[in-house]
Structure formats: structure tokens, C-alpha cells
Design goal:
Number of helices: 1
Helix content: 10-25%
Strand content: over 45%
Order of helices and strands: HEEEEEEEEE
Largest sheet: 5 strands, antiparallel
Shape: globular
Low-confidence stretches: none
Strand order of the largest sheet: 1-2-9-4-7
Structural class: mainly beta
Radius of gyration: 13 Å
Length: 105
Amino acid sequence: MVDLEQLADEHAAKAAASPHGRSAHLVLHDGVLRQTVIALTAGTALDEHSAPSAASIQVLRGRVSLTIAGRLQELSAGRLEPVPQERHGLLAHVDSVVLLTAVTV
């Protein structure tokens, strides 16, 4: 069984120590399903990239924004949102940890 709080603590610390301000860990890989914990320090962004077939992002702690076509969709701790089917990025407003669930085909 995976302890998301423990993983969030561990990767928040790794992100804080990283010169890139981020850390990630693949929690689950089962066929086409992948779940990844991603920690970002305040101000760190993941550049725009293509969307997987289906995905959601759950904010475990902090506050982030999905960046989509020049606009921001802000998400705070506890929010679960689908990832749009267009190019998007992620920006951490404060130190944050998210759980990305993706289906890839």
C-alpha cells in the first residue's frame, strides 16, 4: 500500500534540495494506467507538453495552476481536475505536491 503523505513529504524535500526545484516518483504503473507524485517548489513550472489520452491532477498540498493556451486554471489542495486534451503546463505558486493520473495508449 502506498502512503501518499509520506511520498509527498519525501519528494517535497527532494524538490527543495534540487537545483531544478522538482522531484517526481512513479507510484503505480499498471498497463496503460500511470500515477505519479510530482513535487514542485514555489515558482517552478513544467513547460507545456501534449496531453495523454486521459488524465487528472489532484493537488495533495499547495497551490498550482494548469497553464492552457496562455490562461491559468488555479487549483488548491484537495482539488481534483481533469487534464485538458490540449497542450498544457503546470506552475507552482507555492511549494506543492500533486498526484498525476494518466492513461496512455
